[in-house]
Fold each of these.
Amino acid sequence: MIFWVTLLTLRVHLRIDGTHRKWLVASLIILGVSTIIYVIYAASSPGGPSGGSATGLAFGVVGSAFMIFAGLLAGRKKVAVWRLGRAQTWMRGHLWLGTLSLPIIVFHAGFHLGGTLTAVLMILLIIVVASGIFGAALQHYMPSMMTVQIPMETVFEQIDHVRAQLVGEADAIVEKACGPLALENAALANVAGASNTPAALIPLRDFYAQQMRPFLLHKHLRDKPLGTREKALGIFERLRTLLPDTAHEPTRSLEAICEEERQLRRQTLMHHFLHGWLMLHVPLSLALLLLACIHAFMALRY
Amino acid sequence: MSAAAMIELTVDGKKISVPAGTSVFDAARLNKIEIPTLCHQQNEKPVGVCRVCVVDVGARVFTASCVRPVEPGMVVTTNSEKVKQARSTLVELLMADHPSPCARERQSGDCELEALAKQNGRLASRYTPPDTRRGVDQSSMSIGVDFDACILCDRCIRGCSEVRRNFVLGRMGKGTTTRIAFDNDQPMGESSCVSCGECMVSCPTGALTNKIVNQTQIAAPGAEPVALEHLRELPFFENVSGTFLSLNRNAVVKRHFKRGEVICREGEYGSTAFYILDGQARVSIASPIAHVKTKGAVKRFLGKLSSRLTQRQNDEREEETSQNWIHIDAPVDLNYENPVAILKAGDLFGEMTCMSLYPRSATVRAETDCTMLEMLRNVLDIMQRNKNFRAQLDLSYRQRALESHLRAVPVFAELTDEFIESLRDKVELLRFTPGQAICRQGEPADSFYLVRIGFVKVSQTHPGGEMVLAYLSRGEYFGETGLLKGDVRTATCSALDHVEVVRISADDFAKMSAEFPQVRQKLEATEQERAKMNRNRLSMVSSTPLDSFLKQGLMEAQSLLLLDLDSCTRCDACVRACADAHDGVTRLVREGLRFDHYLVATSCRQCLDPLCMVGCPVGSIRRRNSLEVIIEDWCIGCGLCADNCPYGNINMHPFNVFADLPGAAGKKVAMVKQKATSCDLCSDFAEPSCVFACPHDAAHRVDPRHFFAGLLQKASDSIPKE
């Protein structure tokens, strides 16, 4: 129950639009009615509530139906263009009915864990619902965070390609300013092999060779100074003081490239957060449905 | 020669005898005494402007030897220290404002001025150059002009007038701004210059240089270099400087094609034009003449849309054209029902591909064994500027293409043969270079124009700037508004690329209007439609005050797919749904411009300024009056519209069709042909698939002006009122 209250509290903080409001009201009504029925049923059952009783079975059937409906969303997504109702409606149903399934199943179980299978089922259901709520919260808040924090966002699958383009652009900028870089060195750790760089531009070439290029090439170097906006600002400010005015424009371009690189890294991270929880939610949901079927079969058969 | 006509004089201590009237310069030269010069050439009249050929004849001042006739007993010194010093100073003065190394020095290392400066050790001048720069002119296809490198020696002017008798070049300006000028100071490419190259050959510096074409040699199988003497035998290379032709001769080859051999294929990119020397060629469109019809399947329940190729008689779309002629990059038009025609000796095709690098508009195959000249744009430019060739092209157009060209325009379909015959000798074929104005807003309307080659931009000037009204391609016309109203031009029409138009004078237009009232009625109806469209667009412009909204081109859109980034979880369900609905080919990419917290996804916006239409080699993409883009049946699948769309909103949809086997005439095989498609809004359904499939209510199809009305109003209100 505490879980349900937490959920409600969370929902209240979400921006619930008109379509959500209808679902919320309907869910509250279903929950209210179920609670009343359960209280009456529990009070009138001498041996206490049981999943095998008629009312208990009814709760089980309704709860399972909600779970199955929630599970059908995955199938619905596979046939996204079939005119089976808008995907948005399915998603609303998935969220609200999927969440409702937990208290209904708890009523079905009479607040008992039962045997091993039912205990596993209950734990799975709690994890699935909890992960779902966590995912919904992420999907609610993170898109606007991404919009604000990653103005240079690109298609996720294109990130590696864009990053490679950034390295190319940066090479071209430095080569234009400082002369050819010795890029044939496979390690690329030291591209400062060019001998015809004007003396005034050597700091730029060295900075690029020793700090910036490795930062652009190795996406896992998060702890590098250029990986933080504030530190990078300081680094580029200092670099500009070492360079003639003519090199300030290329330096600004390099700074912009570093900023884009940081944004792409942040996008990757946020994308993994945004969709990573599904790695837990989806397999456990499948397992839950499978075990629920076994439980139903076993309970009805024996 | 009589002895009385001979004059004796002494040059550098050597006694010589030359005919009376000979210049001191020639007298010395005839006796192997070299006097340096810049402005003088043997085949031109001497003018003595550079003074580099100064010599000491014992007079008060030195004299220019090229214009000074010999006199009996004259004692000439050409190389005393004083003479050398004077010459060196002159060269140094000329070098003061000479951009060293100039284009010629960089190209071939033979700038005469810089060579003299090197000889005199005066490559770096001590004199301060003037502040004024005279600039460059790159408008000509084959000759680059750098006015700063010009020393005003007039060799080019004399070459043009005395040697070639073209009288295009002259001088313009005063003092330090004096420079050579073409016609009445026109850019070279827009002048009456015939590209004979004499000026370039005459120029001693890098002021006039041969333009290096990127692809300087045609590397085609079986390409046969054409000897200079053979080139000069061709009538259209008459009067072209041999040196100039020699510099460009790698840019033209002779090619022999066996019967049935493919000469060029539709949709392919190329950079050459073909001129048929003998034989015949068959020009056709191999792509199916049909458009992409996307329909719902299985009672629309499955939401699957199947795309197939459909001809217009089986699927008449709103405002689909009824024209029966397909305009191609050749002197003939193709029939919609049977898109095949024959090209003969003397025909030129592939001009648009060559000049503007558009894809080939049709497939050309040798009908008989034939020989062709294949040329790059510099040679084509030389040909097209040649008076003989122009005359031949004009004649060919009037005799063969004018009628089909006029009849291809639905408005003129009812003109009688007699009237077209009467127009045949009256119409004018005019050429324009990219950016050149054909007619200007506010000028008196004196002509009606039909576009023959290229694209014309129609724009109006308003207090806020220029507004593009339309892009007109081959077969379309303009200039009727001013003529019908008897008023001034209401818009400026300029060449977007290399354009050729057919000009019909106001008198002939008036005659046509009087004789054929139905033509006038149709033209008036078109004029009213265009005026209405322009008014709508103007009202849209004036009602959208937000700069960024305009900058992002959102105002251009009739309908946008917006993704609310605050709701979108980047799950790509919209993209997958679009692909699922359209045979696996998505017409939507979840990337694009951002406005506020909305992403304008890459999906057709039905722009008001549809750049996708520019360059279509067969003019198959055009706009309905509702401003929506329609792709006509004769799309050849070249993909240029997809490349041109600045928002990446046109996709190429592959279809399996039966078409001619490459290299084997008449043999058909199954192959993949592409057709351009754009978002059709899944019009068979109540809602586009992308919007329908979005689980987060993030995708919306909207009219931006209504959707953003509140935001725009807010932004507008925040602008302080004066």
Note: Chain A has ten helices and no strands.
Amino acid sequence: MTYQAYNFAYLDEQTKRMIRRAILKGLAIPGYQVPFASREMPMPYGWGTGGVQVSAAVLTPLDRFKVIDQGADDTTNAVSIRTFFERTAGVETTTTTSDASVIQTRHRIPDEALSEGQILVYQVPIPEPLRFLEPRESETRKMHELEEYGLMHVKLYEDISRHGHIATSYAYPVKVVGRYVMDPSPIPKFDNPKLGDMAAIQLFGAGREQRIYALPPYTEVISLDFEDHPFEASKADHSCGLCGSDTSYLDEVIIDDAGGRMFVCSDTDYCNSRQVAGYKGKDAA
Amino acid sequence: MTPLLSVQGLSKNYGTHIGCADVSFELHPGEVMGIVGESGSGKSTLLNCMAGHLRPDTGEVVFDTRADGPRDTLTMSEPERRMLSRTDWAFVHQHARDGLRMGVSAGGNVGERLMAVGERHYGDIRDKATDWLARVEINADRIDDRPDTFSGGMQQRLQIARNLVTGPRLVFMDEPTGGLDVSVQARLLDLVRGLVRDMGLSAIIVTHDLAVVRLLADRLMVMKSGHVVEAGLTDQVLDDPQHAYSQLLVSSVLQV
């Protein structure tokens, strides 16, 4: 049911216009962080307030909505945001990636390839890739403005000097169309190659930090690296225990106190659909 | 011969206070210029105006760029000026903490300027960093240590390495030996003198320590209350000061 006390999708129309303007600007300048007047949402910062506002601004009554949290459709964050839009927008929801027209995600890109017409909305905790290298916002803005990204490589240099390889495994910085360095939100670097040349629109919303940025379909996105230490999309060297996939991103799950563990797909919809199709992993019941 | 740096009528006021007033001089390639004077005499203001950290009220700072010859750095666009300060210029701060990234290893500190100008080969960056640490007498096995584990003198040497790695032509130094004890000072000065000579650097050194300029500088400017009161060859100014303030300054040095 829909509460009539709320406007469609919770936010008022003026706020949605303001957010849509920021989104359009973001799409026009891929990778550029557009400031916007983030609203208080009925959830704590860090739970996806930015993503929810972006979703609210792009949803129409005909959309079908999916929410994933670390790849899963059934965790607290995913369930509560899905319910939120069921109640305030009355839109249809789904857990099937290919059926959804708008997908809000936290920390993952679905393993199934997205298609044209879909929108992927990311929840972003810290949109500024240079934040932990340069604490001054005035300075990081200037660095983006003047394309001074040497410092980003200092971080990767430190990784190699300390660990022998680039140890940054999530929120791995990328360069968008040869211009802006962008934080892809804390997705594993396994997902980085999917960012580029994607058919779907990708929108990034950071509520607390009040920034929106975007990647239009088929945008060139390159992960930063060194010539002698090239970027590598890494994952656990196993196959999924339930569906047997060895190309999907895996979670390691501890199953007893005797060192037992299994690896399963982090994308639950991908894993379920493979199991329905008859694929079986070594741990499948 | 074109001067490397030519400063004309440079003035900077802080409200009604004079920072520095109507300073003009020329610096030729390979020359080291010392600026001395007491605290508050405008030395650092002048240096910061030349290095682009402060915007002077009037005057011009013309630098002989590699690409386009002499250009006024004050009317340059900001990207050009920042590019200049990453490549052809270097700035050594009095406190190494201001010039170093304390959370980044020594190698990363030295490599930053290389990466900022587009170096993307880890092995090359590391080799150059190792080479430069050796040139400033820091042991190669400290390359992955953070500068906050270094002594004051090492931090200052690391700051110099980090600045000189891109082969600048002009180095600004603000009290490079301030806060170091005398034996460490002596080693640092020796090192700087060697580097300046080997690399054919030009330098502008601000200090209140006359021994520093005696050792390093070819020419000297004495500042008081924002004005240059005397200028000339170092030995000439120090041995035969003409202005009353220069005489006071020279006679104030303790003889041991």
Note: Helices of chain A lie at 13-28, 49-58, 76-88, 137-145, 150-163, 192-195, 268-276.
